């Protein structure tokens, strides 16, 4: 193996988008009692398993590459992880304020104050971003800043709770370099024309997420095909294996670069997420989340990197892998490369209620593939109107009875929504629970709506807000 001689790293100041902020956090009502800890469908095993293994629930979700606005596919994916965080919170876990120290780096939480630590990256330097900036004659840093801010705004409008840490790749360059150095020190990297590649042969566990014997069940030929489709370079001459992936791209003329022990350049995609996840959450954490198009190669490679970097550590990387389905539009998967995108900010600018957008997403199970249509949005708007009308009808019927105990029907709504979310975040099932409540109230004569219905409606409103993130 040959590579550049070690040198002093200067990854921080130049072209750095450091100190990335999350967005404003919506208030989450406190509900009576506690929900049951959620269970998730694990992609690696196909089994329904507890989402968190201990008092600190940890989640890493792969974020955006900010070269275009947030589309409905993004919104659907991040709404799914928002449901997971809300279910954890309802099970008596606490969500630290964004960008505060994680429980892993501070005192272990008391049993009565458990914690959710949610980390999300932003790939704010990568080929698609640079290519779009070049196409439009724009500085890549300005493009990234603008689209990251638009993403924040869209997430806040949809009432998606912000991650504890939102980490840009450029901000994390020292972290990535240290992590890559661990792999290098174990002999897992090699040089191809000054670019550094990860040798998948260094990881005996490669394929544990998506290879033969798993529910995904990809064979090597299928892996090579997907790698070529999803940003890899399996046919590059000089590689030891077509599935070996780039860890450090040597500096090219006109491209941004940072100094490192590997020479000037920038990191690959898979090492970025592996490094950020393990630095903020530890070598082993609960949930790795992303779209189903990330199962291979991205999540397989990130896990493989971590197994090599941390050697014999037991249970390295994610304990559970969860993947959201793909959203299509006009017959094809919604993607930036195809240009068939429905943008959240354009819907909102056109006067669409952000809660209707969220309701349209919640009408589909997060693991399902589905197609966005005007009819789906219209149905979501009609459902939202019906729920609001039911709430208004109850509140108007007995305004003086707000201190009454909640009706048993409201308790049943809370229990029903909790049960559906516990079962692999079954949002469509939860919506059906609310539908039955709304339909009953709307069918009642005003004189038959009781004081208990009024108080119960307030509990249902808080349930919808706290667990589904919909503000009525």
**Proportion of β residues?**
5-15%
Structural class: alpha/beta
Could you state the order of secondary-structure elements as H and E?
EEEHEEHHEHEEHEEHEHEEEHHEHHHH
Overall 3D form:
elongated
Low-confidence stretches: 1-18, 100-113, 400-405
Give the proportion of residues in helices.
25-40%
Number of helices: 13
Largest sheet: 6 strands, parallel
Residue-averaged pLDDT = 89
Report the radius of gyration as a whole number of Å.
Answer: 24 Å
Please give the alpha-carbon distance between the first and last residues. Answer: 61 Å
Number of strands: 15
In short:
This protein is of the alpha/beta class.
Which terms summarize this structure?
472 residues, alpha/beta, four-stranded antiparallel sheet, 15 strands, 14% strand
What does this structure look like?
The protein is of the alpha/beta class. The chain is 40% helix and 14% strand. The protein has 13 helices and 15 strands. It has helices at residues 72-90, 127-136, 140-157, 173-185, 220-229, 269-281, 295-309, 344-349, 354-362, 374-397, 408-422, 427-443, 451-468, and strands at 39-41, 48-50, 56-61, 93-94, 114-122, 165-168, 189-192, 195-198, 245-250, 265-267, 284-291, 317-324, 327-329, 332-333, 370-371. Strands 3, 4, 5, 6, 11 and 12 form a six-stranded parallel β-sheet that branches. It has a four-stranded antiparallel β-sheet with strand order 7-8-9-10. β13 (327-329) and β14 form a beta hairpin. α9 packs across α10 and α12 runs antiparallel to α13. The longest helix is centred in the last third of the chain and has 24 residues, at 374-397. The radius of gyration is 24 Å and the shape is elongated. Mean pLDDT is 89; it is low at 1-18, 100-113 and 400-405.
